[in-house]
Design goal:
Layout (H helix, E strand, L loop, with lengths): L2 H16 L6 H13 L5 H9 L21 H6 L8 H8 L9 H15 L5 H8 L9 H12 L5 H6 L4 H18 L5 H5 L6 H12 L10 H13 L6 H13 L3 H8 L7 H11 L5 H10 L5 H9 L5 H13 L6 H10 L3 H10 L3 H4 L1 H10 L8 H14 L11 H11 L5 H5 L4 H13 L10 H13 L4 H25 L2 H16 L5 H14 L4 H10 L4 H13 L3 H14 L4 H17 L3 H10 L9 H14 L3 H20 L6 H19 L6 H12 L6 H14 L4 H14 L1 H13 L5 H18 L17 E6 L1 H16 L11 H14 L4 E3 L2 H10 L3 H5 L9 H7 L2 H14 L16 H7 L1 H13 L7 E3 L2 E4 L2 H14 L6 E7 L3 H4 L2 H8 L2 E3 L2 H8 L1
Parallel strand pairs: 1-2, 1-5, 5-6
Antiparallel strand pairs: 3-4
Helix pairs in contact: 1-2, 5-6, 8-10, 10-12, 12-13, 13-14, 14-15, 14-16, 16-17, 16-18, 18-19, 19-20, 21-23, 23-24, 23-25, 25-29, 27-28, 28-29, 29-30, 29-31, 30-32, 32-33, 33-34, 34-35, 35-36, 36-37, 37-38, 38-39, 38-40, 39-40, 41-42, 42-43, 42-44, 43-44, 45-46, 45-47, 45-50, 46-56, 47-53
């Protein structure tokens, strides 16, 4: 019945459109179809005939009304338990057979809606137009159909339609759909009913989900159990509770001990306040979660003060998070929470933030002195913190540490480690308690080896064992940082000790170790500074240190000094000289350092034959270069003139220098002027050899000057010298060489000994020949030693004569301080802080014990030392740069104990019992000092710039010259150098005083004694 009308509806308009081309054979077929339609058609065709004139013919056929449907309304109603917004469920429901009769118009609308749903892009707004009027104002089951369609189309009248259903069976369903509408529109009066739906149907699920989506506006107080159920509901549709409630659930789960479940709720939730952050920290303290930690990290920037404080105060806060919160509080400028912020900085070992706080409010360094000392050792080298400013804060902290209260944030082990790193070990048992037996044994062995009484031999595996023990130890973050600093200090001390010992293998191993320390991640500024001191002292090439300065401080003088040392170690001495020159220029405000570095530059220029640049440097800086001796300047100028082709000028300069020196030295003495000038020129000829400088072209120029200075008559002395040179070029017979030297020694003993020294040191002789000459030299020296003053013996290194070292007060004070620290420390191992000063007095004592040097305390130094160490208070004032526990000091150091230790130091550094010096015929020291007036003027200015009022003496009314005690030491040293002391080959003054160090070469040339200021200089003179 349905198919035939359709065919008629197709053929009728087709025939009309084709006209004459219509196939007449279709007419019979049309008649058959019309006959079938006469039996009746569906009502919809009559409706369509009215709408479409082309098929108006369909209106003449009778309509067959459909019979009442026999459909179970209950099943159909039950199937409506779905969410109308679920398009698939709606389409499926509309496809079910209706339990009530519909007309053709209603069927047509339902058909269009189903097609719209099937298209994948439903247009609910169109449905409302289609539904009018056939599907509006329905009753009973029709009202349910109408209501659900209106809900699906989001029509406001949907609730009214559903509420109008009076049938008991459908009323309950309609009411549930109405509740869903109300819930979604924000009316939560039925929230509990919706949230507690138990059914498995999709409508129940939609009610539950909609309710929990609106949980924040829920009028009911919900328990944690309720929230857990809600979380499950939302989880079923891939959603979660609002962040606020997730944190509430998480907090409850944490309190129940179910941290894993709590993490599930916390991850992904935003952290908006302190309570959220606190719950997150509770979870993170029990279980790791990078996601939660990152969320917490990101939330810190938006938390208010209370939230930040709750984070800071949480016991289990991760270091990074607590530090971030503390920084935010500090940046706010509030001073109410300063203590808490500083505590957070300290626990996290955030040294830069800690120092910034101390710099902002210097009084804090008195309140927290241990933290300042800790900062001194842990400050990262990459920090932009002013190192000198931190040094000043450290001095303040050391001054006030005895009066400060305990630090509640620092553990006993932390305080002990800080004290160990900075001076006097305190409560060392708390450090020992952190280590296992292997670590404790290794620490004690290493410290014992590095103590004042130790042998300095530290096996690398011992430090390795200690490192492994620290890794195994249960430590706080701060304690681990301090233990790491301890390991670094031990490695640094071991390397420094290796350099002091002085063997090539030890030096190479030490340089490698220093390089590793400088390249370590997060290397401390203290380490960089210590390695830089060693580089400066020993002229070491440490590539990693140069790289560090290039990355962090390439504009400063230290970079050029370190770079110069590396260039020197690679043999590029010309560029090393230029780098030292740049450093000296940058150090102009520090006259002492500038002068010493310039001296290095000039020496490197000499070794690189950079004569022109060296002379230009001297001429451009007359004040600084005044610390360089006239002989060295003559050496540089002579070489430059020779290389420039001005040989006559070079010879004239040498002869002029000899004439001037002879006139100064004559002072009414009898004898030939020519002979004295020749003697001076001969001394100049030896100058490069005695000072380790390149001999050419200087010696060639001196030889020419000597030839000019001598008469044309050939002297016996000249013949012997010529015979010596011929023998050294020829057979090299030890007996013949010895005979020549003995004959020379008859008139000039020192020249005979020098001949033998030159032959032995030439490297042209075999070992037996050299041994034979050594015996001859020793025998010749025994014969003539009484006539050879000590100042003339310095070049005679093969005689194995010992240097007599006169120890100045500053060295004695450092030795006494080190000795007292040993007795004050609980383990009697003394200080761990290895400095240039400590290495110096340690090496002096070591070399004396080895029998390599003789030690002597001159009367002036002894008197000043006894005065400065006259009482515990007076010597305590010298510890201004060292951590001293005042209570321990008072307990241990009394007058009697101090007197005993002072006596022990004097005994250790005054082992020589030679003849007392005579002041008769003492040298004209005033004239020497006046010649170096510019040096002493700058030294005086620099000392006064440092805040000190130096003790000075006056010459010509100008009080800029060394104090009386230093002048007496110079005179005593000069007197000893001019005498013939048995078995003494040199006189040296051991001092760190710039009054000596800056004119050391001049003192050596004028008075015959040298100056050593550190362990390296000492070793270079005796090894």
């Amino acid at each position: 019945m349905l198919l035939q009308p359709t065919r008629v509806a197709v053929l009728v308009p087709t025939g009309a459109s084709q006209g004459p081309t219509w196939d007449a054979s279709f007419d019979s077929r049309m008649a058959e179809l019309r006959s079938e339609c006469e039996k009746g058609i569906h009502p919809v065709w009559r409706v369509l005939a009215k709408e479409a004139p082309l098929i108006a013919e369909m209106a003449q056929f009778p309509v067959i009304e459909e019979a009442d449907k026999d459909v179970d309304a209950g099943d159909w109603v039950d199937s409506a338990n779905f969410d109308p917004l679920d398009r698939d469920s709606l389409r499926e429901w509309l496809s079910r057979e209706l339990p009530f009769a519909t007309n053709s118009e209603q069927d047509h609308v339902l058909h269009r809606i189903k097609q719209d749903l099937a298209g994948g892009r439903a247009r609910p707004a169109m449905w409302l137009r289609w539904m009018r009027p056939s599907l509006r104002g329905l009753r009973k089951e029709g009202a349910l159909l109408e209501g659900i369609l209106l809900v699906a189309a989001s029509e406001e009248s949907a609730a009214d339609v559903l509420n109008s259903i009076e049938d008991a069976g459908m009323g309950e369903l309609a009411n549930r759909h109405s509740m869903l509408i109300e819930m979604r529109s924000g009316n939560l009066s039925d929230w509990n009913t919706c949230a507690s739906q138990e059914g498995d149907d999709s409508l129940s699920g939609a009610l539950r989900v909609s309710a929990w989506r609106n949980v924040l506006s829920c009028p009911t107080e919900l328990s944690a159990a309720d929230l857990l159920r809600g979380a499950e509901v939302l989880d079923s549709v891939g959603e979660s509770l609002p962040g606020e409630l997730r944190w509430k659930v998480a907090s409850n789960l944490v309190s129940q001990g179910d941290v894993v479940a709590a993490l599930g709720f916390a991850e992904g939730a935003s952290i908006d306040d302190g309570e959220h952050a606190s719950t997150a920290l509770d979870i993170l303290s029990e279980i790791e979660s990078e996601a939660l930690a990152q969320t917490l990290h990101e939330s810190i920037e938006s938390l208010g003060d209370e939230g930040l404080l709750s984070v800071m105060r949480h016991q289990g806060v991760p270091i990074r998070i607590g530090l971030q919160a503390a920084r935010r509080v500090w940046e706010s400028g509030s001073i109410r929470h300063t203590d808490e912020v500083l505590n957070a900085f300290t626990a996290a070992a955030d040294i830069e933030s800690l120092v910034v706080a101390f710099e902002r409010e210097p009084s804090l360094s008195r309140a927290y002195p241990h933290r300042v000392l800790m900062s001194w050792h842990l400050l990262p080298g990459s920090s932009q913190i002013d190192w000198e400013g931190l040094a000043e804060l450290r001095r303040t902290a050391l001054d006030s540490i005895g009066d400060s209260a305990g630090d509640s944030v620092l553990s006993n082990a932390s305080v002990a480690l800080i004290s160990l790193l900075d001076g006097l070990p305190r409560d060392i048992d708390s450090v020992h308690g952190k280590l296992d037996s292997d670590g404790l044994r290794s620490l004690n062995e290493v410290r014992r080896a590095l103590s004042p009484d130790g042998d300095g031999v530290v096996r690398e595996n011992k430090i390795g064992n200690l490192e492994e023990s620290i890794l195994r130890a249960d430590l706080t973050h701060l304690e681990r940082c301090l233990f790491d600093a301890l390991i670094t200090a031990l490695k640094l001390n071991r390397a420094a000790m290796g350099l002091q010992i002085g063997t090539g293998e030890d030096e190479e191993r030490s340089v490698d170790a220093l390089g590793r320390l400088c390249s370590a991640e997060g290397v401390a500024m203290r380490t960089i500074a210590a390695v830089a001191d060693l580089v400066n002292e020993h002229n070491l090439g440490v590539v990693a240190l140069e790289e560090w300065y290039r990355d962090n401080d390439r504009s400063g003088p230290e970079f050029q000094i370190v770079r110069a040392a590396n260039l020197r170690s690679r043999g590029d001495r010309l560029n090393a000289a230029r780098a030292y020159k740049d450093a000296a220029m940058k150090l102009r405000l520090d006259f002492e350092r500038s002068a010493l570095v310039m001296r290095k530059s000039l020496i490197e220029f000499a070794h690189a034959a950079g004569w022109s640049e060296a002379v230009a440097l001297v001429d451009a800086n007359p004040v600084v270069s005044s610390s360089v001796t006239n002989r060295f300047k003559l050496y540089l100028r002579t070489c430059k003139r020779h290389v420039d082709g001005n040989t006559d000028e070079a010879n004239a300069g040498l002869i002029e220098f000899a004439a001037h020196e002879e006139e100064v030295a004559r002072n009414g003495a009898a004898g030939s002027i020519r002979d004295r000038r020749v003697e001076i020129l001969e001394g100049l000829h030896r100058y490069p050899d005695e000072h380790g400088l390149p001999p050419d072209p200087f010696q060639g120029s001196v030889t020419a000057a000597l030839h000019e200075a001598r008469t044309s008559e050939t002297s016996r002395q000249t013949d012997l010298e010529r015979s010596f040179m011929i023998e050294m070029r020829g057979r090299k017979d030890p007996a013949k060489i010895a005979d020549i030297a003995i004959e020379v020694a008859e008139t000039e003993p020192i020249n005979g000994l020098r001949m033998l020294e030159k032959a032995i040191a030439s490297g042209d002789l075999g070992s037996k020949q050299s041994d034979s000459l050594r015996k001859s030299q020793r025998a010749l020296f025994v014969i003539h030693s009484d006539s050879i003053p000590v100042r003339g013996r310095r070049p005679l290194r093969n005689l194995s004569l010992k240097p007599l070292v006169m120890v100045d007060t500053n060295v004695l004070i450092e030795a006494l301080k080190d000795d007292l620290l040993k007795h004050l420390s609980s383990d009697s191992l003394g200080s761990l802080n290895w400095t240039v000063e400590r290495a110096f007095h340690w090496m002096l004592r070591r070399r004396a014990e080895e029998g390599r040097v003789l030690l002597h305390i001159p009367p002036a130094a002894r008197g000043e030392f006894l005065h400065r160490a006259k009482s515990p208070d007076s010597i305590l004032s010298t510890f201004s740069d060292t951590y001293i526990d005042k209570a321990t000091w008072s307990e241990v150091v009394d007058d009697a104990f101090l007197e005993q230790r002072v006596g022990a130091v004097c005994k250790a550094f005054d082992s020589w019992s030679g003849p007392s010096t005579s002041r008769e015929g003492e040298p004209d020291l005033d004239a020497f000092l006046l010649r170096h007036r510019e040096v002493f003027k700058l030294v005086d200015e620099q000392k006064r710039r440092g805040g000190r009022t130096p003790s000075r003496t006056s010459i010509g009314g100008e009080g800029i010259y060394p104090e009386r005690g230093d002048r007496e030491i110079m005179q005593d040293a000069a007197a000893l150098a001019s005498t013939s002391i048995p078995d003494v080959g040199d006189v040296l003054v051991a001092t760190r005083d710039s009054d000596f160090r800056l004119v050391s070469r001049a003192l050596e040339e004028e008075f015959g004694f040298g100056v050593v200021g550190d362990a390296q200089q000492l070793n270079s003179g005796i090894l």
